[in-house]
Amino acid sequence: MCSISTLSKKSVKAEAAATAATNMSVKGMAIVLAVIFCATIAQGFPMFKGGRCLCVGPGVKAVRVADIEKVSVIYPSNYCDKTEVIITMKTHKRQRCLNPRSKQANIIIKITERMNLLKYQTSKILEKRI
């Protein structure tokens, strides 16, 4: 037969085990939530701030318009915090960075924005016709 003290000792041990398991699961859950929280915060930060820009220096102020084959305007993003204007030259397919604050770069940016807007508008018109 079991005495009352033996039963109470067993119930106390079971209660203590249940409390310990609950505390461990709460601690484990807190650790998992902390790791997920840190991962979501770190995902929004760029790894190399300003290290992924294509243009290293300020760039040239102007380029002969006749030598321009292609223009790429890259707006600020997580990888590079500045606007970059990259000109592909007709000769030797060489690329040059144009200073985005120069007068010629501002004109080029406005023209490319206008061209993109026109492409968007014409695609919407064509969609309506179809």
Automatic annotation (TrEMBL):
One GO CC term on file: extracellular space
Claim: Calcium is one of the keywords in the record: no
Keyword Signal part of the UniProt annotation: yes
Compartments where found: Secreted
GO BP of this protein: defense response; immune response
InterPro entries named in the record: Chemokine_b/g/d, Chemokine_CXC, Chemokine_CXC_CS, Chemokine_IL8-like_dom, CXC_Chemokine_domain, Interleukin_8-like_sf
Keywords, sorted A to Z: Chemotaxis, Cytokine, Disulfide bond, Secreted, Signal
Single Gene Ontology MF annotation: chemokine activity
Domain of life where this protein originates: Eukaryota
Chemokine interleukin-8-like domain residues: 50-112
SUPFAM superfamilies: Interleukin 8-like chemokines (SSF54117)
Family: Belongs to the intercrine alpha (chemokine CxC) family.
Record's protein name: C-X-C motif chemokine
Species this protein is from: Hipposideros armiger
Species lineage: Eukaryota, Metazoa, Chordata, Craniata, Vertebrata
Name of the gene encoding the protein in the UniProt record: CXCL11
